[in-house]
Amino acid sequence: MADNGSAPAVALEAVTIAYPGAGGAYTAVSEVDLSVARGRFVALVGPTGCGKSTVLNAVAGLLPPSSGRVLIDGEPVSGPNRRAGYLFQQDALLPWKTVLGNVAFGLELRGVGKRERLERARDWVRRVGLAGFENAYPHQLSGGMRKRTAVAQTWIGDPELLLMDEPFGALDVQTRQVMENELLGLWTGTEKTVLFVTHDLDEAVSLSDEVVLLSAGPASRVVGRYPVDLPRPRDLLDIRTEPAFTRIYRAIWADLRDEVMATYDRDRGEA
Ligand SMILES: Nc1ncnc2c1ncn2[C@@H]1O[C@H](COP(=O)(O)OP(=O)(O)OP(=O)(O)O)[C@@H](O)[C@H]1O
């Protein structure tokens, strides 16, 4: 592979994505430019339906742009990116496999020998706090435990790039806070780049180095980039009460609110 050490981990260049439809194509995002340096934690926010998942799917290589380019480490994306790790709101646990089997599954697909993959899976099960549940099946787990299993499943492959789409959206508030903290704990000190989609501004600010705001659709584009210069390592339970957190949150919300209202007005007009 080319030596692209200085290239951004992720770059979108004038990316436009239109979905075909019966009444004509729907342009979800238009001319999106975005560059994410290696090792950064970037949150993507915007009103509902603005195209956050669309952008993430394009970066994942699951959705080819109608025009423009997506580059990973300086190389154009052409097909699903197998070096990236994914975490979505819906986990992808296999119901017939145990926790250990689910965590080891990615390594199994890659042909890693049984002994090694089980050893590594056991280590990850322990790291996400599920020691003792190795032999449990997904239906025997709480939502938080399923999510921990999914986190281990993703991280065991040691991906350089993590693409997360509202990964904790379905969890109750308390479990969510614990999981967010644990995610930061895993990520801190690594060189991993994270693109994190959320519609929760609180979550976006507390986790990330930078928040990127997409405008209301159709034809959404990037309308704001906000550095989050809060110290690390962060304890999310503490950081949300810091004056600096409130300052950043308010600055972004002032702009996000306009986009949310634009979406609301548009939907009302269509109703
Ligand atoms: N496969 C598809 N075919 C047609 N339109 C689609 C398709 N997928 C998404 N869209 C439309 O594209 C727009 C962007 O959708 P997307 O899911 O990317 O937004 P989002 O910001 O992630 O939404 P949310 O915050 O509600 O999860 C929406 O209007 C959606 O209805």
Automatic annotation (TrEMBL):
Pfam family, one: ABC_tran
ABC transporter domain: residues covered: 10-241
Source organism: Amycolatopsis magusensis
Lineage: superkingdom: Bacteria
InterPro entries: AAA+_ATPase, ABC_transporter-like_ATP-bd, ABC_transporter_ATP-bind, P-loop_NTPase
Keywords on record: ATP-binding, Nucleotide-binding, Transport
Range of residues in the leader sequence: none
Protein name as catalogued: NitT/TauT family transport system ATP-binding protein
PROSITE patterns listed in its UniProt record: ABC_TRANSPORTER_2 (PS50893)
